[in-house]
Every structure is written in structure tokens, then in C-alpha cells.
Amino acid sequence: MILTYDTTLKTKKQVTFIPQEKIDWFQAICSQAFGQPAVVLDTNVARIIERFFGIEGERVKSRCKILWQAAETVAPDTQVGLWNLTLLDFGAKVCTARNPRCSECPIPERCNWYKSILNANK
Ligand code: SF4
């Protein structure tokens, strides 16, 4: 596959020639290689957002507008590439699919999923 990049692109909304299922790759490349504010929404990031905000995205996360909106809202204005890598690592090592390590999470008190677990155990 050959992709051409326009380094002036700012958001995925301008990228109509990239298939939706490849948008994560494109966003990751834009943020890592070109320092653009392009967030990534893979299954790890989607899981963190769903748990933290207590929302349930659509089955195909990469097509879920609510999750994309949330991901773009919480991303910082600068160093989005670093932010993306941090979330990917966090989802792989702390907020894991099974048995998340909430005791290692820096902000469990603000997480809806964690609060619901605490309330269920009262
Ligand atoms: S508190 Fe637990 S579930 Fe919530 S974001 Fe942190 S690791 Fe994930």
C-alpha cells in the first residue's frame, strides 16, 4: 500500500481518502512522524475511554463517533504523539482488558468504572 501525506492535515475529518479501518495507522503516523494533533483510537484506548467516562461505544470502536469525540476532547493541545503512546501503554499494562490494575492507576477516583466496582462491593 502506498499512502501520500499532506503535512498540513490537521484532523481526520480532512482525510476522506483513508478507509476508516486504517484511520488509526494514519493518525498514529501523523502524530508520531509529523507532530500533528491526531489522536489514536484503538481497542486499548477505546476501553480506557469507555471505562473512565462510563460510556459504551459501538461494537466497531474505530467507527464510533462518541468515542472519537471523547478521545479528541481529552487529548492535550501539544505532544499528541506522546499522549497516544502513553495511552496505548497504559491500556496494555494497567487498564488491561481483563483484571485492570486500578491500584496502579494515577486517577482511579475519577474513573466511572472504578467507582462502580467500589459501589458494587459496598
Ligand atoms: S481506575 Fe482502573 S478501570 Fe479506571 S482507568 Fe484506571 S485502570 Fe482503568
TrEMBL record:
The keyword Glycosyltransferase does not apply. Keywords: DNA damage, DNA repair, Glycosidase, Hydrolase, Iron, Iron-sulfur, Metal-binding. It comes from the Bacteria. GO terms for biological process: base-excision repair; mismatch repair. InterPro entries: DNA_glycosylase, Endonuclease3_FeS-loop_motif, Endouclease-III_FeS-bd_BS, HhH_base_excis_C, MIG/MutY. Belongs to the Nth/MutY family. This is HhH-GPD family protein. It comes from Hyella patelloides LEGE 07179. The lineage of its organism: Bacteria, Bacillati, Cyanobacteriota, Cyanophyceae, Pleurocapsales.
